[in-house]
Structures are given as structure tokens and as C-alpha cells.
Design brief:
The protein is of the alpha+beta class and about 80 residues long. About 25% of the residues lie in helices and about 15% in strands. It has two helices and three strands, in the order βββαα. The protein has helices at about 40-45, 50-60; strands at about 15-20, 25, 35-40. A three-stranded antiparallel beta sheet has the order 2-1-3. β1 and β2 (about 25) form a beta hairpin. The longest helix is centred in the C-terminal third of the chain and has 14 residues, at about 50-60. The termini are far apart.
């Protein structure tokens, strides 16, 4: 019986966009801090940066996410 299990590359069919390498990868091949996902398809993973930017813009425009609040800028 092995004391340590070999780390697997991830589940087949889960796709990630690796920020460090700038590429789509099947399964989590890089550390979590460097990837976006999982996505259902490689095409969705390839658009990960666009998806994140669109979400950020939407949140920036949403008053519920406004850090300034009623009393002005947060300090």
C-alpha cells in the first residue's frame, strides 16, 4: 500500500484557462492561483478572460458592490 498517492491531473471534461501559460488545459494542471475554471468546454475556457472582464464590468456597475457606499469612499 502506497503512503502517498500520485496527484492526478484532474477530471476529464473539465477545462481551465491557465493564466501563467496563457492556454487552455484539460483538468487542473497548474495551481489554483494561476487558473480560471472549470468550464464545460475548451471553447468556454478559451474565453475565460473575456468572461471575467464582462463580470467585473457588471459588478462595477452594480450598486450592491459599490465600496463607497452612502458616506463616500471607504478608508
Amino acid at each position: 500500500m502506497a503512503l502517498f498517492k500520485k496527484k492526478t491531473a484532474g477530471k476529464p471534461g473539465e477545462w481551465y484557462y491557465c493564466l501563467e501559460h496563457g492556454r487552455v488545459e484539460e483538468g487542473p494542471q497548474c495551481k489554483a492561483a494561476n487558473r480560471l475554471g472549470p468550464y464545460a468546454t475548451p471553447e468556454e475556457a478559451a474565453r475565460a478572460i473575456e468572461t471575467a472582464e464582462a463580470r467585473n464590468e457588471k459588478w462595477d456597475e452594480d450598486g450592491r458592490w459599490n465600496d463607497e457606499g452612502k458616506d463616500g469612499p471607504a478608508r
